Automatic annotation (TrEMBL):
Keywords of this entry: Ligase
Record-level Gene Ontology MF annotations: long-chain fatty acid-CoA ligase activity
Family matches, as SUPFAM superfamilies: Acetyl-CoA synthetase-like (SSF56801)
Uppermost EC category: ligase
AMP-binding enzyme C-terminal domain residues: 402-475
Domain AMP-dependent synthetase/ligase: 11-351
Protein name (database record): Long-chain-fatty-acid--CoA ligase
PANTHER family cross-referenced by the UniProt entry: LONG-CHAIN-FATTY-ACID--COA LIGASE, NONRIBOSOMAL PEPTIDE SYNTHASE PES1 (EUROFUNG)-RELATED
Pfam family membership, one: AMP-binding_C
Enzyme Commission designation: 6.2.1.3
Cell membrane recorded as keyword: no
Family matches, as InterPro entries: AMP-bd_C, AMP-bd_C_sf, AMP-binding_CS, AMP-dep_synth/lig_dom, ANL_N_sf, ATP-dep_AMP-bd_enzyme
Source organism of the structure: Planktotalea frisia
Length: 489
């Protein structure tokens, strides 16, 4: 990319295609020129307060989010992307540690000054843009986004990314999911999540593409939009999203004639999901891997190779190593499982105000991911599991993904998740949660497990759910499932 900053990348897109549709939602659409005018109006309003300071965005995926993000950049501020789905106490704590000059939100926030904004309020901001006056004050080293990582067991950690880091992220995303002119993107992950940020906010502007924003994730709605909006790139995200879309009553009869790229990420994809999606649509899911601290790390691509079930090969100028779980210092041989560590030009420099967590995650110049995986002799990375999700049964390591993949080969099972339950003799045992596509009883599933798994990997129990609980990022919420087991004990 020629652009050195994210703001200048947007400006280039707007100059290139001012009349192209930039973003569209149920409330209407904005061309690039109209969006630039709204960004300029809001930036002029915010500049005196936010220049050199952070500004919090607490908005759902919307046109307003996109306008607010770029307005803060053009005003010389640092956008802090706080998930709109967080409960109020969590938001209050995040704002308390941020010292934001202003909060841009669709409702009043308890701390600091709130600038109310939503799609309905954008109208007054849309004015003719003066491109010469739309000046990007930032440098490549200035902060382009403050993102948040983790938070399942504590307060999410601040991850500031510079313009240089985000531009490198965009370039590597485009290396994996090659885009063309006139792309129509349908993102479903929150724009505050690194995957949703890439699919909904940054990479669509690289070719002056259109971002179509659903009001919510509802499978029937997504199927309709994939057809009617002539979507070319479906930012589906984790496997649970693809599974839910395939479970839609409208999916079997849908014709996605314009769809050509189906990225996947956020959690490892079972082979069953790859196979069912390709059988139904004729399209591959191009699975990749990344995290807030560095993304993307690897991607499956037609040019460099596709291996279903893997997360692909390392993106350019990025080194992936597998190291021992005990010390993290010994690089392991090909095909041996260990912790994944990675480094590249788009990696974080640390967690703001959190030297302890920074010291754990950043060692020897690498980001230690906390994920377990293997590298094969062709360079394909396969994610085995999260380090913290490994189930320890009588001294054996049980990787939940192996149990989950096996369960998904049962013709009646549509979704699966295996978590640990404490056990007096074994230490821990697996418990499997499943969702169904056709009727089957627990005894049948247990018999299927016994036929396919060694004894120490067998689930002690199988629990049938109407649907899997999901995190705001669309991943299966293991914490909720784990908590439900504790509540039953």
């Amino acid at each position: 990319m020629d652009a050195a900053t994210v703001a200048s990348a947007f400006k280039t897109a707007a100059i290139r295609a001012p009349d192209a549709i930039y973003c569209k939602s149920a409330t209407g659409s904005l061309t690039y020129a109209q969006a630039a005018g709204a960004i300029q109006s809001l930036a002029d309003e915010l500049r005196a307060d936010v220049q050199g300071r952070s500004a919090a965005l607490i908005l759902p995926n919307s046109k307003a989010f996109l306008i607010a993000y770029f307005a803060v950049l053009f005003a010389g501020g640092k956008p802090a992307l706080i998930n709109h789905g967080h409960p109020a106490p969590t938001i209050a704590k995040l704002l308390g540690s941020l010292d934001a000059a202003v909060v841009l939100s669709d409702h009043e926030q308890g701390k600091g000054t709130t600038r109310l904004l939503n799609d309905d309020l954008l109208g007054v901001l849309v004015k003719p843009v003066d491109m010469n006056g739309l000046i990007d004050p930032s440098t490549s080293e200035d902060i382009a986004a403050i993102m948040y990582s983790g938070g399942t067991t504590g307060l999410p950690k601040q991850v500031p990314h510079s313009n240089a880091s985000i531009i490198a992220t965009m370039e590597r995303g485009d290396w994996g999911w090659r885009t063309r002119a006139d792309e129509v993107w349908l993102p479903v992950a929150p724009f505050t999540h690194i995957y949703g940020f890439l699919m909904g906010l940054t990479n669509p502007i690289m070719q002056s593409g259109t971002t179509v924003i659903p009001e919510r994730f509802q499978p029937d709605l997504i199927v309709d939009m994939l057809e009617t909006e002539k979507v070319t790139i479906f930012g589906g995200g984790p496997p649970a999203i693809y599974q839910a879309v395939m479970a839609s009553s409208k999916f079997a009869d849908a014709k996605f004639t314009n769809l050509r790229i189906c990225p996947g990420g956020g959690a490892p994809f079972p082979l069953d999901v790859h196979n069912r999606w390709e059988a139904a649509t004729g399209l591959k899911i191009y699975e990749g891997y990344g995290m807030t601290e560095i993304a993307p790390i690897s991607i499956n691509t037609d040019e460099h190779g596709v291996k279903p079930g893997s997360a692909g090969k390392a993106v350019p100028d990025t080194l992936i190593e597998i190291v021992d779980l005990e010390t993290g210092d010994t690089v392991l041989p090909t095909s041996e499982a260990g912790e994944i560590r990675v480094k590249g030009p788009h990696m974080m420099t640390g967690y703001t105000g959190n030297p302890e967590e920074t010291a754990i995650a950043l060692r020897h110049g690498f980001v230690y991911t906390g994920d377990i995986g293997t590298l094969d002799n062709e360079g394909f990375l396969t994610i085995t599991d999260r380090k913290k999700n490994v189930i320890f049964v009588s001294g054996f390591n049980v990787f939940p993904r192996e149990v989950e993949e096996m369960l998904l080969t049962h013709p009646a099972i549509s979704g699966s998740c295996a978590v640990a339950r404490a056990h007096k003799r074994s230490g821990e045992v697996p418990v499997a949660f499943v969702t169904l596509r056709s009727d089957v009883d627990v005894a049948n599933i247990m018999a299927f497990c016994k036929h396919n798994l060694i004894a120490y990997k067998l689930p002690e129990d199988v629990i049938i759910l109407p649907e899997m609980p999901l995190t705001p990022a669309g991943k299966v919420d293991r914490t909720v499932l784990q908590s439900s087991l504790k509540a039953q004990s």
